[in-house]
Amino acid sequence: MRVVVGTFVAVQVLVSAFCAQLAFAGGRTYQGSESSAHCTLWSSDRLRWPQTILGREKAECRRRAVDSTAGKTQCRLIKTYIDKESGERICIYKRHGTGLEELTLSMSAFLNCQKDFICKRTAK
Q1: Does the global pTM surpass 0.85?
Q2: Cβ neighbours around 77 below 10 Å, total
Q3: What is the C-alpha to C-alpha distance for residues 77 and 20, in angstroms, rounded to an integer?
Q4: What's the angle, vertex CA 58, arms to CA 56 and CA 61, rounded to 5?
Q5: Are 36 and 58 contacting, i.e. CB atoms less than 8 angstroms apart?
């Protein structure tokens, strides 16, 4: 019995030693164009048989996906203060959405900050 267990363990160790390989993973970021984006809405208006050959025309894409950073979102005022160095009013806004950073604007101290407005999703 000991010989069988010893042989089994030895075979397992040899197999794991010869099969062990280092794996290096490299990340790639692809920047596609609008024409290569995936389709989010396909045409469902398919023609019937006498209009096409057995109704086998290809479906067409009606709406392509857009980059999530290309859109706009709501910004709401969360804090305002007057900067002592420059004497300007600083307005800090919260962008609505997940993982979006705050927006900071400066203006004259005599003006009031706007409560909410539509802003870009990113600070580009």
Answers
A1: no
A2: 17
A3: 56
A4: 150
A5: no
